[in-house]
Amino acid sequence: MDLDVLNMFLIAGGTLAIPILAFVASFLLWPSALIKVYYWYWRRALGMQVAYASYGNYKFCYTYRGRPGPKQSILMLHGFSAHKDMWLAIVKFLPKNLHLVCVDMPGHEGTTRSALDDYSIGGQVTRIHQFVESINLNKKPFHLVGTSMGGNVAGVYAAQYPSDLCSLSLICPAGLKYPNESKFLKQLKVLKETANVHTVPLIPSTAGEMEEMLKLCSYVRFRIPQQVLQGLVDVRIPHNEFYRKLFLDIVDEKSRHSLQENMTKIVAPTQIIWGKQDQVLDASGADVLAGSIPGSHVEILENCGHSVVMERPRKTAKLIVDFLSAPQNTANNKKQD
Ligand SMILES: *[C@@H]1O[C@H](CO)[C@@H](O)[C@H](O)[C@H]1NC(C)=O
Q: Could you tell me the pTM of the whole model?
């Protein structure tokens, strides 16, 4: 989700006027270059550094800020077809003294993409654990955050490697049996009947489909210029084949309900955050989790869709920070130290 790219156009247009607009417009011919410059700029402004870690032949790309210290480190797992820089929106509102790590999920952006790799949720959990080991993040229990597909991975990780974590934030995670069916899951059912994987709403290949996806994922409605939509979809198209394969893997029997099947094994203090108007994964999933994870905290955000991190970055950052400093969670950390 590249909603914040749009912000930049608005800011550029609003404050810096014609010369900058002309500069930006020239970049519209090379949308991928523009987007790279944009993230490079924001990473720099926020003090996030890019780094690589290896596990055998496998390479992980990640960004980090700070070092492991007395406070919990935080690892963040992004969703389907996103990348580590989607977290910049909330990094902006997180305290400078926290050690933050955002990793590109298997096959995404700078992390190895291989046709032979196992992209099921179980396979991704194994890879994320390899990443954690490779940078020694689990020397001390850390806080794990995951959204959407990354939330499914984070929840199963918590169940399978309980001693790695001090606590867990699940932001509208996939992998549950949602009591209410979302608009997206209804659309998928129809697609399944017609066996048409080329029109999955989360894998746009035209400007129009890109617009539909943004509408599906966010509550707030933007009017986005055609050229910008075209730019946003152009940078995705080269990856669409991979996205289709990945999508089939994560909606497969084996992965679709991974979090549901694993949630009773989650022992870390858990926070559940959901946008009330989520049309991709219905917010009724929050009750499912809360019913199975004792003592979990549910936060439902009003006027918010599936892209919680993009739509409500300040609020999400505050919820995470407050949760981390809540007495019961700090007490728990002391015990595990
Ligand atoms: C937990 O999730 C993994 C990964 O998808 C899956 O293989 C396993 O069957 C699930 N259930 C349990 C009870 O572990």
A: 0.90
Helix (H) / strand (E) element for 100: namely strand 100-103
What mean pLDDT comes out for the span 135-164? 98
CATH code for the domain in which residue 146 is found: 3.40.50.1820
143 in catalytic set: no
User: Is 124 a pocket residue for ligand 1 (Cβ < 6 Å)?
Assistant: no
Say whether 278 is catalytic: yes
Residue pair 154/164 in contact (Cβ under 8 Å)? The answer is no
148 in active site: yes
For 263, the domain range is 3-336
Is the CB of 258 inside a 6 Å radius of any atom of ligand 1?
Answer: yes
**Using one digit for the tens of pLDDT, what is the confidence trace for 66-82?**
999 999 999 999 999 99
> Does the beta carbon of 121 sit less than 6 angstroms from any atom of ligand 1?
yes
User: Among the options 73, 81, 120, 148, which is catalytic?
Assistant: 148
Nearest CA to ligand 1 atom 4: 122
d(CA 131, CA 133): 5
CA nearest to 202, candidates 182, 219, 221, 188: 188
Structure tokens at 200: 């999955």
Domain tally for the chain? Answer: 1
Catalytic site residue from 164, 249, 278, 282: 278
Compute the chain's Rg from CA coordinates. Answer: 19
300 token code pair: 């439902």
List, in order, residues 6 or more apart from 305 with CB less than 8 Å away.
Answer: 217, 218, 219, 220, 275, 277, 278, 279, 280, 311
Q: Say yes or no: CB of residue 255 within 6 Å of ligand 1.
A: yes
Residue 136's region, left for phi above 0, alpha for psi from -120 to 50, else beta, is: left
What DSSP character marks residue 12?
I
Distance from residue 227's CA to the centre of ligand 1 (Å): 43
Distance CA 12, CA 260 (A): 44
